[in-house]
User: Fold this.
Amino acid sequence: MSEVGWVETALVAARPQAVAALLRYFRDLDTAEEAFQNAALRALKTWPQAGPPRDPAAWLIMVGRNAGIDQVRKTSRLTVLDDEKAVSDLGDAETAAAERLDDSQYRDDILRLLFVCCHPELPATQQIALALRIVCGLSVAQIAKAFLVGDSAMEQRITRAKARIAKAEIPFEAPGAVERAERVGAVASVIYLMFNEGYSAAAADAERRAPLSLEAIRLARLMLKLFPGEPELMGLAALLMLQHARIGARFDADGNAVLLENQERKKWNGELIAEGLALIDKSMRHRRPGPYQVQAAIAALHTRSASAAETDWAEIELLYRALERLQPSPVVTLNRAVAVWKVSGPEAALALIEPLDGPLAGYFYFHGMRGALLAALGRAGEARDAYSRAISLAGSAAEAAHIRGQLDALSETAKAS
Amino acid sequence: MLYAILCYDDEAKVSAWSEAEDAAVMEKLGAVQDRLVRQKRLGPVARLVPTTAAVTLRKQAEPIVLDGPFAETKEQLLGFYIVDCASMNDAVEVAKELAVANPGVGAYEIRAVKFYNGLGAPA
Assistant:
């Protein structure tokens, strides 16, 4: 890392806590953000010479507060805060900050900041964009690139989101236990969505969208640090890590998706796997299962088997059953059908998914899976029909190409027999 | 004499590294390790997952397993080296090299090893 590198890293690490405290103080997202920017600029000037402060977040909060107060004074005739709260000398700031900073508040501060960005009134894309901008500190240009839209479109999206937040009136007092749990749940689901935005990208976009997955993992780690005894947060972090660990093996040289069973396991990221497996094991000791833990447990079983052939499909089938109970959805049933196919054969799997033709009639993967099962049962004509429906629903050229490959294989089999 | 060099740093900061930064730090540390390997002085080197993924077993009549360590402190144990050194000063020199490879805040705690049983123990 370069000489200035450590300053930037320290700023990134301290950002959520500092912006969160400034938000509590100023009760306005824009003011808090500007105050942090000002403090960060001062840090970039002074830290390289003075060395890192003992508590970078406390330093940034103090300096940011003062910068924000100056700003408020300039723009308003009202003196909103009394003089004694303004500390101008940077040397004093750190000592004062250490004394005044109430550590017990910071957990609810960060949760509030995250919850503001993940507010249920915002559409998912705005939630994710806002969290990336405010909490993670990505630039508008970086976020626009990850979402594959222009800078001005992203700028507008973030501005609109902020305007809605300003109207939403987030309570600033410490939340009660029920409210806290609701906030944790809302934030967790946005982190999960953020990850999937990056993870579900096609090969051509994977590199541009990767920051979404990485920032989601960072936020999952942050939440875990705030709530270290919450098994669903352990499950969420484990799930994201175990999925992301496979990123290097998911596409071949031509950018085609490589199915899990064909991936080169030595290309998986061993460090992320070690952390993810430790977290899922730890979460399961709590015996309070939830959807993230079950999904992570499934990912862990895939990761732990030495080869695709040794995968414990019976156990995976049981876990999908548990997931169906916790979070009933036809897509979960479709996933369970993959395990049923491996354990009990294609006929049982087909029987399981036939009733899904209603809810999943417009779902690419349903028809792809149905085609594969029919092909395995030797019902080539029906398989062809199912594959054709899948192609008509394909969301990308790569998806369509994959099904065309299946159709070709079907014709090859027909010729051979 | 074997010395343990225990690496303490703020895991929030370390996990804020980008993949590229992480790789760059590991490469520089690897260069220090390579020299120690060539001199046949390097024992196990370990990098630990964050404390959020750890559990703690408290010894008591019925030992209990807790989440954590719940880090009250700013710095956590993130990894360690076992190095064969002529003296404490020699071990300090090795730690200084590691600090050059991975600058910033944090600390290396240097402790002489009084019992060692494991892989790669020097005869």
In short: Chain B touches chain A at residues 10, 12-13, 15-19, 21, 24-25, 47, 49-50, 52-55, 65, 67-68, 70, 74, 102-105 (CB under 8 Å). The mean pLDDT of chain B is 89. The radius of gyration of chain B is 16 Å.
